[in-house]
Amino acid sequence: IQGVDYIRIPVTDIDDAKHFYGELLGLPAGPTQHEDWVEYQAGNVTLAVMTPDTHGDEFEPLPHGVIALGVPDVAKAKAKLEAAGVEVNEMWDSGVCRGASFRDPAGNGIAIHHRYVPHGQG
User: Fold this and answer.
1) Residue 122 in this model has a pLDDT that exceeds 80
2) What is the spatial distance between Cα 96 and Cα 82, in angstroms, rounded to a whole number?
């Protein structure tokens, strides 16, 4: 294994997903853009937002915590999402990291997350 090429995120409406991931979250567009599969870059990982029904699958939203997007300041990111109308759960703190979870328009569980000490540095 050399790395993760992409993480597939099932959605019910590709236009809602484009607005959410591209505009609201501000993720830059990835290399592949189709009518039913749109990629976004989250650091070194590609998020492939796609409609499962056009790929022979049934839609089922991801549970909370499957995707944790790293941010420098969880409170600031939470406030920005809430200002845009996204309902974000209360922040949590494990002593190692902090985060808060929310759902995209299709119901996929996503977290904003900040690790106090990056992997390999402590």
Assistant:
1) no
2) 25
SS3 68: strand
Radius of gyration of the chain (CA): 15
Q: Which residues of 77-105 are buried (b: 16+ CB within 10 A; e: fewer)?
A: bbebbeeeebebeeeeeeeebbbbbbbbb
Q: How far is CA 36 from the centre of its chain?
A: 17
* CA–CA distances in Å: residue 101 to residues 1, 2, 6, 35: 29, 29, 21, 28
**Are the beta carbons of 88 and 82 closer than 8 angstroms?**
yes
What single-letter DSSP state applies at residue 27? P
Residue 19 DSSP code: I
Asked if residues 49 and 17 have their Cβ atoms less than 8 Å apart, the reply is yes
pLDDT at 105: 96
Helices (H) and strands (E) in the chain, counts: 2, 8
Q: How far apart are CA 96 and CA 107, in angstroms?
A: 27
Tokens linked to 122? 């402590």
pTM for this predicted structure: 0.87
